[in-house]
Amino acid sequence: MTLPRADRAGAGPDWLTKPSLRGTRVLLRPFEERDFPAIGEALADPEVLRLTGAAHTTEEANGRSPVPDDTMMAWYGTRRSAPDRLDLAIVDLATGNCVGEAVLNDYNPANASCNFRTLIGPRGRDRGLGSEATKLIVDYGLTALRLHRIELTVYAFNPRARRVYEKAGFRVEGTARDALRFDGAWIDAIHMSILATDGVRSLTGAGGSWRP
Ligand SMILES: CC(C)(COP(=O)(O)OP(=O)(O)OC[C@H]1O[C@@H](n2cnc3c(N)ncnc32)[C@H](O)[C@@H]1OP(=O)(O)O)[C@@H](O)C(=O)NCCC(=O)NCCS
Strands across the sheet with 97-108, in order? Predict the structure, then answer.
């Protein structure tokens, strides 16, 4: 196995090597142009918009176009050259189609920390894909990228995502009260994190393998 530059002595994390992480149900790999319609559809899904805090009303959540616009295509078209973050398409191995994304972002080099976020559209949810994708990218972050800490925020009205994160090893750190307003109701945001020192983690342990 060829190690990314981060695993060679003295080097920092190599964010420019965009890996493919293979599990039994999903493949995480860099975005390709053929993924754009699928990721556009996932990003416009009302449930995704509500649960990620990207919409504040049902009307807003129902109103997003699934057709990728120029800004979206430019964003996903440049993810391969992003020097300080990792954006991977989640591909359903049963169909070969992109169903969502898994992202390590907000990298803080001094603290060897970053943020994690993920979303899966309706075609991929509730079949174990998110659980596997989360474990794969988190293991990659804590091992190959040598991050010390990965943090995330999940809204209190999203127990499914919280369950997925807890299964991957994230622990609750605290609650930001009334952090989101949706349809006039106040929703708490739960902060979670996982540390490299929380336990022995490996790509093998996540049931996956990776290659640059
Ligand atoms: C959150 C998300 C990534 C999870 O991926 P997924 O593939 O749907 O989830 P999985 O099928 O792998 O696992 C879901 C787990 O939650 C559990 N679950 C489902 N609904 C639940 C609920 N209402 N309460 C508690 N647990 C629930 C399932 O039983 C399963 O746990 P298990 O494996 O122990 O049985 C995906 O659903 C998604 O992107 N949703 C919309 C956007 C979103 O919420 N993004 C995250 C924002 S923080």
Answer: 171-182, 185-195, 149-155, 113-120, 97-108, 86-92, 26-29, 20-22, 209-211
The pLDDT tens digits for 48-85 are: 999 999 999 999 999 999 999 999 999 999 999 999 99
Q: Which residue has the tokens 């440049």?
A: 78
Give per-residue pLDDT as tens, 126-150.
Answer: 999 999 999 999 999 999 999 999 9
Domain boundaries, the chain: 5-207
For ligand 1, say whether the CB of 50 is within 6 Å of any of its atoms.
no
51 lines ligand 1 (CB under 6 A): yes
- Alpha-carbon distance 39 to 33, whole Å? 10
Residue among 163, 158, 153, 159 nearest 189 (CA) = 153
- Closest ligand 1 atom, CA of 163? 16
What is the 116 CA–ligand 1 centroid distance (Å)? 15
Looking from the CA of residue 132, the nearest atom of ligand 1 is 12
Closest C-alpha to 21, from 69, 66, 87, 107: 87
Identify the CATH number of the domain defined by range 5-207. 3.40.630.30
In which band, very low, low, confident or very high, does the pLDDT at 12 lie, cut at 50, 70 and 90?
Answer: confident
Asked if 141 and 196 touch (Cβ cutoff 8 Å), the reply is no
